[in-house]
Amino acid sequence: MMTKDANETKKILSQLYNDVSKELFGFGTTLLKVKIEEKIITFQAKHRRAPRSQALEGEAPHLKLEVDFHMSILFKKKLKEKLKEIGWDIEAVLRDYDSLTQIAFTNIIVK
């Protein structure tokens, strides 16, 4: 459901991304850039560090990595669901997250 206005589409996508972030982590991003190229949408985001992540980092770093991995999978699933709800036909959602910098790149491939 891409609108004719690219800026409006980017606003809708940014809102959806932040909605998923708030739902899963309790807050949105500190930085979010959206880029649209043909059938690929790229989100560049900087997330806030959750207090529980800091606690796990010191006490159980291996557990924090596992939690980050599973939360990233859940993030992709939720984002794909929200995009489908507004009429987007999504082929794939790809995401890479660096827990040290809290930076994530998410690519959406539209059918």
Radius of gyration of CA atoms, rounded to a whole number: 14 Å
Task: Give me the number of helical elements.
Answer: 3
Calculate the terminal CA-CA distance, rounded to whole Å: 11 Å
Helix content: 40-55%
Q: Largest sheet, order of strands side by side?
A: 1-2-4-3
Low-confidence stretches: none
Structural class: alpha+beta
User: How much strand content do the residues show?
Assistant: 25-35%
**Major sheet, described briefly?**
4 strands, antiparallel
DSSP E strands, number: 4
Layout of SSEs?
Elements: H1 6-25, E1 29-37, E2 40-47, H2 51-59, H3 61-85, E3 90-98, E4 103-110
Antiparallel strand pairs: 1-2, 2-4, 3-4
Helix pairs in contact: 1-3, 2-3
What does this entry look like structurally?
The chain has 111 residues and is of the alpha+beta class. Helix content is 49%, strand content 31%. It has helices at 6-25, 51-59, 61-85; strands spanning 29-37, 40-47, 90-98, 103-110. A 4-stranded antiparallel sheet has the order 1-2-4-3, with helices on one face. The longest helix has 25 residues, at 61-85. It is elongated.
Features:
alpha+beta; 3 helices; 111 residues
Short description:
By secondary structure, this protein is an alpha+beta fold. The chain has helices at residues 6-25, 51-59, 61-85; strands spanning 29-37, 40-47, 90-98, 103-110. The termini are close together.
